[in-house]
Design goal:
Keywords: 4Fe-4S, Chaperone, Cytoplasm, Heme, Iron, Iron-sulfur, Metal-binding, S-adenosyl-L-methionine. Probably acts as a heme chaperone, transferring heme to an unknown acceptor. Binds one molecule of heme per monomer, possibly covalently. Binds 1 [4Fe-4S] cluster. The cluster is coordinated with 3 cysteines and an exchangeable S-adenosyl-L-methionine. The chain is α/β, with parallel strands linked by helices and 368 residues long. It is built from 14 helices and 17 strands. Helix 2 (68-81) links the parallel strand 4 and strand 5. The two termini are 37 Å apart.
Amino acid sequence: MQPLSVYIHIPFCLSKCAYCDFASFPGQEAHWEAYFRALNAEIRAAGDARYRVETVFFGGGTPSLVPAELLADTLATVREAFCLSPAAEISLEANPGTIHLQKLRAYRRAGFNRISLGVQSFDARLLREIGRIHTPEQAAEAVRLAREAGFENLNLDLMYGLPGQSVEDFRATLSRAIALQPEHVSAYALIVEEGTPIARRTDELPPEEEVLEMQRLATRMLAASGLVRYEISNYARPGFACRHNRVYWHRGEYRGFGAAAHSFLGGARFENPSELSRYLSGERGLNREEISPESAMEEAILLATRTVEGLSLSRWRSEFGSEFSQGREQILKDLLSQELIAIDGDALRLTPRGMELQNAIVLALVDG
């Protein structure tokens, strides 16, 4: 059987966060049942017993907003349509302001074994200003309840570089996160998307050097607590790296279901419409693109250099039929001399300083 990962998009939320440009829609409760009927029908239509599903990820939006029974039914549909590995990692994104113990127990009964809490910050002022619906106290309580419900694989999502945020503000958030003893932390720098409310506050953003110090601080503090960096923005205790996200970084095959979901299958990428009305009307599999060898090379460089393990030179040779160094001799020499990359046996990886300049290094390696 071929391994496959499944992503399921739940596009509903209570309110739109100030930084969000994802396909998420508040005030659409009247469409919930129709959406899940369409979602389950899409999964059944794509079912294929040749694939063994190793990871499932319910993202959003706010999946934890909708009744737990709807999520359980969809996970059961995945089981019916595909061969779901008994050891599959099954993740659910949840907002601390939308969960309670009964919901969390229902998730565990349904088969969810990993929960990702969108905490973002433990600063009450910052949470209000970015439009989050929960408080720091609710975030801590959500962790306690998740443990009581039986979740032993728990991630906390954090953000830094927020308007008005100082390095010391972020230090305090990291301290509170570490005290909750999660198995995994994702710490993302704010990306200001055009058209979002936060884009009107760029004059309040911390200086670039302070944002960089926040990233360095996260790496130091989390490592000291046993959460080791394994990707630019992700940290985990041994054995708890997110298997689903590793599929993306290693260019494994995945199938996305729901509005705005993307897929990579059979050497092609395709997506569903992000508009709820178009998805409910039955539009599927748009913008299909067969990935050329050149595009595959670019993707491999971009994604693998995000990870601490780096780019496998033998896999490159096997997949593309050439040595990675071919045509890149001078740029590799320059990057090595600047200590931005290291070549260790079969792996080309970015150094910690190189990770701070990943975009520029990727461009240099792609251009050769």
